[in-house]
Specification:
- It is a single chain.
- 39% of the residues lie in helices and 16% in strands.
- The chain is built from 3 helices and 6 strands, in the order ββββααββα.
- Helix 1 (39-53) runs antiparallel to helix 2.
Length: 129
């Protein structure tokens, strides 16, 4: 299977819609049961996420997920790159994270948590089934 947005995907790749709180589809991601992460990989993903989030406690981030200082922007960019790489590795293809962050920044706060944390929880719930 090939998709101009997501690149080459395995034939059995399953499309999972990403919806906002009102139920509107804001993106989608694909995963193949053949490339499903193991429980160990999911646990490692949580550790990698904590490492990506740790530097953020030293900077100011707006509610929509933007840093307020030049130094903060650099730290935030590094964290965003780390989170995107984590999502790509969990789903097994480069560029997978783009589907999540097309309309909402990774570190926007939604319901008291960063949006990227919620995305990773969704991935864990979906691929863990």
């Amino acid at each position: 299977m090939s998709n101009e947005k997501y690149g080459r995907l395995e034939p059995e790749a399953k499309r999972i819609a990403i919806r906002d709180q009102s139920g509107k589809e804001i993106g989608a991601f694909y995963y193949s049961s053949g490339s499903r992460p193991t429980p160990l990989q999911l646990a490692q993903a949580q550790i990698r996420l904590k490492w990506a989030l740790a530097p953020l406690m030293h900077i100011d981030i707006t509610a929509d997920g933007q840093a307020t200082s030049k130094r903060g922007k650099k730290i935030l960019r590094n964290a965003e790159n780390g989170v995107c790489a984590l999502i790509d590795s969990l789903l097994g293809y480069q560029g997978a994270a783009k589907a999540f962050f097309e309309t909402t920044r990774p570190f926007a706060r939604i319901g008291g948590r960063f949006f990227c944390e919620q995305c990773i929880s969704i991935i864990e719930q979906t691929v863990g089934e």
